[in-house]
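Reopening this one. Same input as before:
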Amino acid sequence: HVQLVESGGGLVQAGGSLRLSCAASGRTYRNVSVGWFRQAPGKEREFVARINWSGDSTNYADSVKGRFTISRDNSKNTVYLQMNNLKPDDTAVYYCARSWGVTTTLGDFDSWGQGTQVTVSS
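Same output, byte for byte:
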């Protein structure tokens, strides 16, 4: 049973950058993917980015393309989300989660971290 812990959130001005980390404990499988999702107050949890464990397959939400980059470090069992040119609309709690296979559908992710708060001021 994998356990995920997010870190790296904080307060940043618009145009600034943050790097989120998702550290996983437990076994890692070759067909596992890790996704980042976010949820703002009053809104549904939405997909942000996904990466498979080999790092050769990624997906991004249209709203973050060109600004966010997802990556992984297999030796550390960690997935990162580099967020550049942040906007106030990026303010949300960010969660990482695990899925099997290639998917960006929220319901296909079965293990979730507790989330880390990202606040972008104008």
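So the earlier flakiness isn't reproducible anymore. For the record, The chain has no helices and eleven strands.
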